[in-house]
Target: Putative outer membrane protein
Amino acid sequence: MKKALSFTMCILASTYASTALAEERNGWYIGALYNSQTISIYQSREFKSAGAIAGYKINDIFSIETRLHKGTSGYSFNLLEPGFEDKKYKQDLDYQGHILAKASYSITEAFNVYALAGYTKTKTEITTLEFHTDLSGNTSVTYPHQYSENTDGFSYGVGLNYQIYNQFSVFVDYQVLPDFDKYQKSGSWDSLNLGVNYSF
Model:
């Protein structure tokens, strides 16, 4: 009887330890974010977007994270071409994706700071005029002319995270995105993000 009881207790203890270890190793988390982006160029451009986060916490310091978001508002201005003054040049954020490595440092039990570095790809949608000159030299103008542009490259940033409960946290971070480099013009591109994460 004692042997059976001891054996049962060992099995229960092993099961509990295995479960606890599995839970400890489950570093997956998901979240949502809202951000504001600025391109510093001859005409500064601002975008707003919202999106989702999925990540895996490898240990107390390092994580791998992906972010994918879609534009909610973009940049526009009135065209100056005669006959089209009521039309607008528009540039909207179609989507933006990030694959990031994240290194965190705890300040207190609730607060930690972190650094981000990785790859970012952005697709923007452009609406503008199109000029066409035929063989006779006659030029026609049409609106709207729509096309897309892609920008990708290295991005990095820093942030602050606050643990609200065991599984919920809020964060704010600042990212430097790949330079906007179009039409022989180059401008810095940065982003301010506010979001929430849920850990499993």
Q: What stands out?
A: The beta strands are 28-40, 45-57, 62-73, 75-78, 88-106, 111-133, 139-163, 168-182, 185-199. Residues 65 and 121 are 14 Å apart (CA to CA).
